[in-house]
Model the fold of this input.
Amino acid sequence: MRVTKEKAAENRERILQAAAALFREKGFEGVGVDALAAAACLSHGSVYSHFGSKEALAAEAVAHALAQSLPQLGGGADGETVPLATMVRRYLSRTHRDDPGGGCVIAALAAEGARQGEAVRAAFTEGVRRMLGGLAPAVPEDDATAREDATIAVLATMIGALILSRAVDDPALSDHILRAAGAHLLRDAPAEEVGTVPRVQSKMGSDGNP
Amino acid sequence: MRVTKEKAAENRERILQAAAALFREKGFEGVGVDALAAAACLSHGSVYSHFGSKEALAAEAVAHALAQSLPQLGGGADGETVPLATMVRRYLSRTHRDDPGGGCVIAALAAEGARQGEAVRAAFTEGVRRMLGGLAPAVPEDDATAREDATIAVLATMIGALILSRAVDDPALSDHILRAAGAHLLRDAPAEEVGTVPRVQSKMGSDGNP
DNA sequence: ATTATCTATAGATCTATAGATAATGC
DNA sequence: ATTATCTATAGATCTATAGATAATGC
Done:
């Protein structure tokens, strides 16, 4: 049964959405093409029509998830500058920790991504570059080189802390990791930044921390 | 063909060694029981005799890998205090980045670990606690709470930077991430610590950075 | 007698392809 | 005529179990 061109495009988009969420939730190898197709209400044959292989779908899904989760951080392409404190609190929130399927692709899949093929790795590299670019303007450092280093350190700290908070069994330790990493990153943030209202009202928007 | 009790213990140990390395290299779901058994020169049936299930083997392998890689960081159980700079340089070295099979279990598997069963997660939690305990004495902070927070931030930064450096396609960016994160972590380290000789001569010992 | 190991195999699952189907696009 | 989708299926792989084997441990 053939469908209209628009319908086909919608179906393709729905596969991407399902893949972007399910890969982040269960890992690249934790979910099969069959399950992805089912989540998009299609047969697995249709997935192969659209993407050719699981690997190709994975690469597109990573890029897709990246395009969605990056603006949520606050480092969007619009001129508006979001304070570092807002981005950090948003990223290191319990809401984000508890929603890997809708959250940062790097934190959820970068470790596995290192073992994937060329296309997937390229998507991750682009993602890291874009996150650094979005973060840099908010990092308070005078010297350009120092800011570059600091930006990388801030990103590494956020990603590492989120991964640790998810890996750990004990809810108290998990919360502690999020709070401590955030506090350390913002240890000399200006007081006005505290309590800034999130710019977007996404799933990652409300930060879940009191 | 039955073997001696000692031989059986050796075989068990060899399975653990192979699992600890292969899981870190290929991920929990990237390697099958058959391949693990083959790496230990045994049949897969023997693996089930020793561990009962792949999940149980994974939990023991994580604990095993942890016990091996923790002293390499420098935060061993002996009274000797290793400077933070030594630990950071060792951890954020190219040698470590390029040897996931012999390196930090948390960086290699924690993201996947969050999706594993109880036993595996418990092993990771214990691992995070032990790494924090090994790191804390080297973190230069007066206030106890501030030190705790800083220790968590240092660990998160190291793990995040290593994961990022492995995920990224471009060798120059990968090196940059390691260098920048290290430089930022040690930005106010005393000058005497620079160039400290690594305590152990393990695979992780020589740091590969000029 | 116990048991570490191996072989054979069950049963599930996974990626991918081939060919049929049926409706769109021209 | 083209093509998006589905069904059927191939072929591989993966976890796990059952039963046989043969040497140790007592």
Observations:
- Chain B touches chain A through 50 residues (CB under 8 Å).
- Chain B has a mean pLDDT of 88.
- The CA atoms of residues 113 and 121 of chain B lie 6 Å apart.
- The longest helix of chain B spans residues 144-167.
